[in-house]
Amino acid sequence: MAIILTGGTVVTAVDCYRADVRIDGEKITAIGYKVQQPGDECIDARDCYLFPGGIDPHTHFDLPVGATITADDFASGTRAAAVGGTTTVLDFATQNRGESLARAVANWHAKATGNSYVDYGFHLAVSELSPGVLEEMACLPHTAGITSVKLYMAYKDVLQVDDGTLLRMLLLAKELGMLVCVHCENGDIIDVLVTEAKAQGRTAPKYHALTRPVAAEREATARAVCLAEVAGAPLYVVHVSSAAALDVIREARGKGLAIYAETCPQYLLLDESCYQTQDFSAAKYVMSPPLRPAANQAALWAGLCEGSLATTGSDHCSFNLVGQKELGRDDFSRIPNGGPGVENRFGLLYTYGVAAGKLTLNQFVAVTATNAAKLFGLFPQKGTLAVGSDADIVVWDPAVKTTISAGTQLQQVDYNLYEGMTQIGKARHVFLRGQHIVNDGRLTDDAPAGRYLMRRPYAAGGDSRVSV
Ligand code: URP
Ligand code: ZN
Ligand code: ZN
Known about the structure:
CATH architecture of the domain at 54-375: Alpha-Beta Barrel
Radius of gyration: 21 Å
Strand content: 15-25%
Bound molecules: N-(aminocarbonyl)-beta-alanine, zinc ion
CATH class of the domain at 54-375: Alpha Beta
Helix content: 25-40%
CATH superfamily of the domain at 54-375: Metal-dependent hydrolases
Distance between the termini: 36 Å
Number of strands: 21
C-alpha cells in the first residue's frame, strides 16, 4: 500500500508547484495528479508545503570534550532533529591524537548504530596526519563511505593542524575525490590572547569572545583559501560567523575557486550582546567562532541569498549549563565550546528567512537540504523531491506558530539558545524513507530507523565545481 500526500505545494531548490506525492516503500514513485490507486493511504497536505527532509551537515553527538561529553547522543540528538524537520545528519567522527582513523570510525559507528532516528553519515575530523593516517585515508571513500574530512586551524595542542598538514590533506583529498572542511580561526592568535586574558584575571565567559576576534577568523579563512588554491582542491569552510570571513570567500569564488561555505542559525540570529550578562549564564553562548556584533547578520543573510554561503549547519554540540559549562566557572577557557540547535535549524531558517522575506522558498530548500546533499555525495538520493529519491519529506504547516523553549524541546540539554523566540510553521508530518516518523507534530513510537549513508566522492579528481 502506497502513501499519497495530497494537495500540498511541492518545493525544491528550483521549483514550487501544487502536486500530489506518491510514496511506495522507501522511495518517491510519482509526483503529479491522479497518482492514487485504490487502497492507498492518503494524507491531507492542503495548505502545507512539502519540503525535502532537512540535511544538517554539522552535528557533534556523543563527542567527548576534555573531561566531559556532549549532552546529546545519537538517540536524543536525532529525535530532536526529526521533530524539527531534519532527516539526515552528518556528524563528525573525531580522531583523538594517536588514534587510527579506523578506530575513530568504529567508535562512531558504535555510538550511532541502532540509535539514530534519522539517516546519518560521518565526516572524519582528523587531528593528526601521521604516515599511517595518510595511508588510511585512501580507504575512506570506498570502504567507509566517508568522502569529507574536517581539519581545525584552532584548538591549539588538541586539534589544531599546521599549514603543511592542511596542504597535504588538501592535495590528498583532491586525489581521492574528498572534500576538506576547515574550522577557520587562527589558533595561535587565540592562544596568546587567552593566556594574556587569564594572566590579567579575566575569567568571565565574555572573554571567550574577546579572545577570538573576527580578524583571527578572517586570517585563517584567507589562509585556508590560499592553501586550497595552491592545491587546486575544493574547500568547505564550516560555521562562517563574520562578514569579513564571508568577504574572503566571496572574493575567492569570484576568481572561480571551488570554495563552499556554511553558516549557522546562531550567527544569523544571535549576537555578541549575549555575553553581557552579569552572571555565568553567558556560558551558554560559548562556542567557536563566538557570536559577533549584530552588523554581521545582514551580510550572512545576503551570503545565503547570493550563494556565497551554500549551506546551514546547526553545529549542534550541546553541554548543560549546570555541571558541564560550569566546568569553566572560574576560567572561561575551560567552558566546553558549543551549543544546541539541531532541532531548531530548519524552523529558524523558515521563520527568519522565508517568513521574514529574506529567503525565497527555493533558497530555503537549497540552504537547508539540497546544497549539502550535492556537496557531500548524497544528491539526488537526498536533498530533493523527485521520482526515485528517498521519500524523506517534511509536510510543513506554515500556519502554526510556536515559542521555542527548553521546556518543550527534545534536545536533551538544559537550555535553548533561542529561548522565547517565535517559530512560524511546524513539521506536521515527517517521513524518513517512507516511514512516518513524525505524525501530527509528534515523534511516533517507532524504534530508531536511521541508516548509515555510504556517501559518493565529491568529484573524481576534485577539480570540477559542484553547482550550488
Ligand atoms: O564551539 C563549537 N563550534 N564546538 C564544536 C566544535 C567545532 O569547532 O565545530
Ligand atoms: Zn569547528
Ligand atoms: Zn562543529
